[in-house]
Amino acid sequence: MLKMPNLEVHQPDAVKHDTKVSAQDVNVYYGEKHALQNVSVNIPDRSVMAFIGPSGCGKSTFLRCINRMNDTIPIAKVTGKIIIDNQDIYDPSLDVVQLRARVGMVFQKPNPFPKSIYENVAYGPRIHGLSHSKADLDEIVGASLEKAGLWKEVKDRLNDPGTGLSGGQQQRLCIARAIAVNPEVILMDEPCSALDPIATAKIEELIDELRQNYCIIIVTHSMQQAARVSQRTAFFHLGTLVEEGDTTDIFTNPKDQRTQDYITGRFG
Ligand SMILES: Nc1ncnc2c1ncn2[C@@H]1O[C@H](COP(=O)(O)OP(=O)(O)OP(=O)(O)O)[C@@H](O)[C@H]1O
């Protein structure tokens, strides 16, 4: 009899939201390497989906497909379809810069620009023409910092460098920067892996608040984190999506032996 880990699953509501992102038969090749094989999944709006699985199984590769970040890797080739709302994001006529505003990304290591706190957040809205005056921009910067749970801590030092903040504050600044351009989807690639437990808890609380308004997809190595923050979980193994479903089901009643082995710590 396998012992399931004692994971506290956070499932505050059972509301099912419409699909925001639909991946259909997605494959990714890095040169000869077939890194992601026939991945199909529907990701609901206004909820958090966690991607879990052992190192090298393709979680980040798949995440990067959703805002076409793999386009920046010359040897990467993506086939299949990814539809956001009704739009195929691999349609050659699509403006990738606009797409990356709609689908924001937060990385493993906080990466603020070497500019002031204010400028880190103002940069995106300015280049995307979202503000028409300084007052507009101030409003967007303030609201974004507020939504990212950082306003109170930085309101009196907006001109200080973003890089002078603590790691957790820098990560919230990066989340504010993503929010500032009105994204619909936020991709998070192990956003807490460089943070201490207190900063991690703050980011997790923030993710829980943000899911009211955004479709959030998070890659995490921590099953505890997936259980705490997500409503849906997808388990990847060796470049395939083995199974996905409600987080509670994946952690308490997985259908596939490989999922069961992973969540019970047999590999990974
Ligand atoms: N830029 C790249 N060039 C060549 N191969 C790559 C590249 N990025 C990833 N890969 C390969 O693709 C496979 C999937 O990698 P990926 O980073 O997506 O996995 P992952 O599940 O996110 O791993 P981890 O949890 O360690 O971050 C791995 O075999 C990896 O070596």
Please describe what this structure looks like.
With 268 residues, this protein is α/β, with parallel strands linked by helices. The chain has a single domain, classed as P-loop containing nucleotide triphosphate hydrolases (Rossmann fold), CATH 3.40.50.300. The protein is 34% helix and 25% strand. It is built from ten helices and ten strands. The strands form two sheets. A six-stranded mixed β-sheet has the order 6-7-8-3-9-10, sandwiched between helices. The protein has a four-stranded antiparallel β-sheet with strand order 2-1-4-5, covered by helices on one side. Helix 7 (197-210) links the parallel strand 7 (185-189) and strand 8 (215-219). Helix 3 crosses helix 4 (134-147), helix 3 (117-127) packs parallel to helix 6 (167-179) and helix 6 packs parallel to helix 7. Bound molecules: adenosine-5'-triphosphate. The site of adenosine-5'-triphosphate has 13 residues, from strand 2 and helix 1. Adenosine-5'-triphosphate binds at residues 30, 33, 35, 53, 55-61, 73, 75. One of its GO terms (molecular function) is ATP hydrolysis activity. It comes from Hyphomicrobium sulfonivorans. Keywords: ATP-binding, Nucleotide-binding, Phosphate transport, Transport. Residues 21-263 form the ABC transporter domain.
